């Protein structure tokens, strides 16, 4: 039986578009006009056989009548509604709208996704312009040269009786500063254009490594055995990766292999499936909670993972689609990872809600660890880790964002700078 409550409405809409009278469709489908009238007003259920006859008479597929607006269109309409929360959109009538006006519904859903994509592009570019060290240096060089040219030009324009020797010197300055601007601008353009399409936006060895790891699903089955990380790097395609990135990759793989030795994959997965509690697994394997979070961050599917050092700088990122991580600069000060950073050895569990058009809730585990790799005299090293999983539980979540500069939350007790998104609206 067709179970969609608006099946009749879709039949009526399709018949109207074709200009068929109700009696004509009823005759073609082999039912009475009065019975078809009840169907079209959603007062009678329709058997699959009858639905096939009606669809044939209307010249359409059975699925087009039974399914109506596709789930993707409905999701897109929800996205559009979330972006205009103050407009009073009738959320409970989205399926009816999609069924009655599929063209308009598809257009709105498509535009909502385009708007979301553009907003993310603005966030990424703003984040990069604000924190990319090379861009900052290059732009400063261009502005500095332009300022020098302007100053020299003003002197030449406003001073009539300049000594010929000084005039010649100023002309030389103009030429050298102009060349400076040209070279700086050319270098900037080359920097922005030289990155291959799949690596667009990379600006540091850390990002090179993260991009490389993402392309391999963050997993290296051969390291679950005894393979040497250096040999693994030699066997992998790292064309175009800098020497600094290779060093970071080797360190990551060495730690990966050590974690795999202490927490073998199959026992780890079995214990996690039995009870997903990082502290329980830490006790079982005799390792710090941060090690369990690291292991889960590469072994489990559909998880997000982030690490930071004592300065709060993010040193590793594995983002989720609904929990984007800043590529430059600091993260949200309300993230539990920063709370854990101030209390090493004390694990934290929390539910957080990421800001966005369609806010999502996540279960978060965070922990920090103190180490003295070169003894007390060399000082301590503090490192924190945070694991994220989608959460469907209950209870009020902690509202968080990606980073202050690109966070859409209008009111936040921890905001350190205005959001570019607020300024654009």
Automatic annotation (TrEMBL):
Pfam families given in the database record: HTH_3, ScfRs
The keyword Transcription regulation is annotated on this UniProt entry: yes
GO molecular function: DNA binding; DNA-binding transcription factor activity
InterPro entries recorded: Cro/C1-type_HTH, Lambda_DNA-bd_dom_sf, ScfR_C, TransReg_Diox_bact_type
Keyword Transcription: yes
Positions of the HTH cro/C1-type domain: 11-65
Listed Gene3D superfamilies: lambda repressor-like DNA-binding domains
UniProtKB keywords: DNA-binding, Transcription, Transcription regulation
GO cellular component: cytosol
PANTHER family membership: HTH-TYPE TRANSCRIPTIONAL REGULATOR, HTH-TYPE TRANSCRIPTIONAL REGULATOR SUTR
Protein name (record): XRE family transcriptional regulator
Organism taxonomic ancestry: Bacteria, Pseudomonadati, Pseudomonadota, Alphaproteobacteria, Rhodobacterales
